[in-house]
Amino acid sequence: MAPPVEGGDAALLPEFPRGPLDAYRARASFSWKELALFTEGEDMLRFKKTIFSALENDPLFARSAGADLSLEKYRELNFLRCKRIFEYDFLSIEDMFKSPLKVPALIQCLGMYDSSLAVKYLLHSLVFGSAVYSSGSERHLTYIQKIFSMEIFGCFALTELSHGSNTKAIRTTAHYDPATKEFIIHSPDFEAAKFWVGNMGKTATHAVVFAKLHVPGDQCHGLHSFIVQIRDPKTLLPMPGVMVGDMGKKLGQNGLDNGFAMFHKVRVPRQSLLNRMGDVTPEGTYVSPFKDVRQRFGVSLGGLSSGRVSILSLAVVNLKLALAIALRFSATRRQFGPTEEEEIAVLEYPMQQCRLLPYLAAAYALDYFSKSLFLDLVEFQRGLASGDRSARQAELGREIHALASASKPLASWTAQQGIQECREACGGHGYLAMNRLGVLRDDNDPNCTYEGDNNVLLQQTSNYLLGLLAHRVQDGACFRSPLKSVDFLDAYPSILDQKFEVSSVADCLDSAVALAAYKWLVCYLLRETYQKLNQEKRSGSSDFEARNNCQVSHGRPLALAFLELTVVQRFHEHVHQPCVPPSLRAVLGRLSALYALWSLSRHAALLYRAERRRSCPGRRDRSS
Amino acid sequence: MAPPVEGGDAALLPEFPRGPLDAYRARASFSWKELALFTEGEDMLRFKKTIFSALENDPLFARSAGADLSLEKYRELNFLRCKRIFEYDFLSIEDMFKSPLKVPALIQCLGMYDSSLAVKYLLHSLVFGSAVYSSGSERHLTYIQKIFSMEIFGCFALTELSHGSNTKAIRTTAHYDPATKEFIIHSPDFEAAKFWVGNMGKTATHAVVFAKLHVPGDQCHGLHSFIVQIRDPKTLLPMPGVMVGDMGKKLGQNGLDNGFAMFHKVRVPRQSLLNRMGDVTPEGTYVSPFKDVRQRFGVSLGGLSSGRVSILSLAVVNLKLALAIALRFSATRRQFGPTEEEEIAVLEYPMQQCRLLPYLAAAYALDYFSKSLFLDLVEFQRGLASGDRSARQAELGREIHALASASKPLASWTAQQGIQECREACGGHGYLAMNRLGVLRDDNDPNCTYEGDNNVLLQQTSNYLLGLLAHRVQDGACFRSPLKSVDFLDAYPSILDQKFEVSSVADCLDSAVALAAYKWLVCYLLRETYQKLNQEKRSGSSDFEARNNCQVSHGRPLALAFLELTVVQRFHEHVHQPCVPPSLRAVLGRLSALYALWSLSRHAALLYRAERRRSCPGRRDRSS
């Protein structure tokens, strides 16, 4: 295990080396060390420092300047680095349980070094590991030890060539054979090949494979997951019946070996079924501990969220890295000025500030949100592990699913757009590969796609909100959720009667103002989407058509605005806690207001249109 | 010279191979061949086909599947391909004069093959070549022949390490020495090194170098350009006093060798000065044919436009390529559907249509605009070549400068965002390198930066419009420009009194409707920006501060809206000409309306706010 960093604040937060940034740093209205301590806490700073020090001092992590690694070499190196991370044992399983936030912190530190490494580590330990842990039972615990010692190396095989988003259409099958007490895993044709699976290309020995479970009598019980050995751990040669390979070069994350696999009647023991949601008896009878289908669905949805929450935190890392590069460049690059002799730093231009500073605020707000959502997920997973089958646990699963499904899009897009803005804000220098902005953009890009296409995922969130409103309208149910993210909606009729009565720009610099406007906006969008959906259905559209026709102009902005509100709400509360050091209150308050107002301003057309409709209720807007 | 393609329409526009796209193609409401003939014309189709056939049949242009070319190898190959393009002699100098549109057509064809090749060719033949041709005089014509035979290979060295956008701060010097009748080209320090110069890294033998011209008595006459030999054409070794090298890996366009150079008191003959704008007599006296500084400035601005207009057309190519990939994928990829059994093509989803089809319309509108602006530029350059020193010629230079300065940002951003949307719209498959969307994005990216950062350039356009309004307000001058792009502004008081009175969505499907709204919007933004600028100045801001404070929320949207209006106007007129085949009128009209409405909709918040201010004139919006 890597030795923890010793010493006081000076060792933990040493002064920056002197240089051209000194002038700006001297002008700060707050102490950056105090901000770092407040944002991270000393224990976490020490943990991150331990990781960074280990990587800095290990030649395996040295970057060879200017080297253009071949695909093969980069993938090999990334695997060796991943293995080394396990050897460092930065985080024991016990520590994970004690300080769960160290899990995303470790992933973020690896992501700061290289996305490919972070994702490789994440896929093995958290996605593969979590799937075994959360979907399996006692009999699968033996795998957990092997995962952490890297005796086996894992991947998560859900997506197929022809079906990614539509998991119900997954076509790999698992037929149970009572004679041998085995499942037969089979890919009916190449379109059903597992595809895009991270770690599968070169290095995985085991896969959690999703397949349709059939028991004798040809009854299908839907998608279940199985642990399948795909390679010999000693030779890395494919197991009999498994055709597995690498997908080749991607736009980014080329250290990660994405792969494909086809299974030709591969037999695995009955115990390979990850059986928390349902099991097959030795004789071939399907049994499930969940009586209520809705409950079972809620629990399984929560399980899908962990990947999305991890992506959220990886996107935040990419945004942070790009901003540090672009802001430092902008503070030192001088161009034009009030006179021909005197040039000013480009950061002094209102244009440059408007391009970059909102993303800085977004990085803070989303960073805090990613941690808070991770803790919510931990609560859910603890319930899952302890066998909690309460209605609250299922509701929590649904709420986290709704939040995670919109937060991955919001964070990955914010990062993607922010990195592009940083790239352009650095001019030509931003286009030089060594300045890393291209790698960050390319490595962040798949965050928009994997674990669910952003636009498809947003529909999950809008459907969640629409379902709650339908429940309220039809059954008089209250808006109530375990994390209280929807509770304010209960007052939607009175919120919609509120008016924006702030009289000066100065007053808007409290994020409470934007927050109130956001609540109004979400209530408005929810009601409009609900009405539009019902109108579509009344005019003869099927449910499928009605939802598709509502999504672009209603469901999508609803889901995004709801999630932005949640992010703003949590960050607002965080920076207004009594424990915030007095010297940080002003700057944190400004960050919170900037993020809130900037996000809200992107809905300005909607707000104006809504106001217009209210002031002229008889005159519907023509665009409706 | 490559043999032209013979034969009739069938050879020119052969049927597509049969495949999964047939069903959609069969549903088209128009003949794609007719559309191709209308858009390009038979002569141009034949010209493009000649180029594509030559490249297809030449092994030098074969792509080795899956090969990861090293930087060195790729740059070498790109140079050989560039040389081969000259050998094919697709376009003689005479042809260029006869059919000027073949120039951008050739660049576009090369861009379809590889941006690095198009830019390398463009930089040598058009940027370097044009600079010599337009800024030089009789005595420089000898270079032109050598450029086309590739006896010399050129680059355009304006940008320095510390100064790109701010050309006035360029610090390379050229001191005239009457004793030897030479200029001494010198880089005072490394911050004044020429930087980012395309072709300079490995291959250029000559550079057009911008330097501050000094004559004896230490009088500085500002920036002038010189032809300087930087390498021996036989050995490619640097000339004495020249330190030149390659800048290394970039985010994209890695076939292009961008370089740097420092000059240590390099002596070049007096005749190296490109002397159209000003010359130095053998004795060392500075002379200029232009009496009026404003006129001289107008002429030199027009010269800057050719690079921007070429970038506009390269951006359009990138957008076209990405759209073809994404739309074809969307038409064949099936995911989800009205029932679990029946999946539909993702192109059927309103979401996918809203993501992709506006960019398709943008590609058509911008493609047409790029050709029309190129022809305007040709008119300007002919004036330049014939020594036209009329006020009209100078006005034309200014107008083209204003249009080109905003069209490069609009096209490069539209392409960048469109390619990203295409990438995401193809899901995971869009992230596979072989599907090319990454290369297109990376190769398009520098279009946002080179020849002027997009945001900086937009200020040129808003300044142009503000200058015209000031002229009108202060001197009663009319809004009149040679290309008539600003003439409508003359009626701005009455345009601002107009109201949007269209009563149905169907009526909006004529781009004339969006066009009228755009005119109103540009008048509104121009007046608001002018007022804001004067208000800033009255409250004590310097001109520099006032412009910076106005740019984000006023000048920038003004410049973009003005250019969008110009694009919409030209495309609207183009598709409503009497010569449009009747069978194409509907589809072209829809494309025109879609582009216009989509672009306009991005200003929706502004339109609502403006309406609100008009209906409540006493109650100013709080955000102002």
Automatic annotation (TrEMBL), chains A, B:
The gene is ACOX3. Signal peptide: none annotated. This is Acyl-coenzyme A oxidase. GO terms for molecular function: FAD binding; fatty acid binding; pristanoyl-CoA oxidase activity. Residues 511-610 form the Acyl-CoA oxidase C-terminal domain. Oxidizes the CoA-esters of 2-methyl-branched fatty acids. It comes from Piliocolobus tephrosceles. Residues 302-466 form the Acyl-CoA oxidase C-alpha1 domain. Pathway: Lipid metabolism; peroxisomal fatty acid beta-oxidation. Keywords: FAD, Fatty acid metabolism, Flavoprotein, Lipid metabolism, Oxidoreductase, Peroxisome. InterPro entries: ACO, ACOX_C_alpha1, Acyl-CoA_Oxase/DH_mid-dom, Acyl-CoA_Oxase/DH_mid-dom_sf, Acyl-CoA_oxidase, Acyl-CoA_oxidase_C, AcylCo_DH-like_C, AcylCoA_DH/oxidase_NM_dom_sf. Coiled coil: none annotated. The lineage of its organism: Eukaryota, Metazoa, Chordata, Craniata, Vertebrata. It catalyses: hexadecanoyl-CoA + O2 = (2E)-hexadecenoyl-CoA + H2O2; (2S)-pristanoyl-CoA + O2 = (2E)-pristenoyl-CoA + H2O2; hexadecanedioyl-CoA + O2 = (2E)-hexadecenedioyl-CoA + H2O2; a 2,3-saturated acyl-CoA + O2 = a (2E)-enoyl-CoA + H2O2.
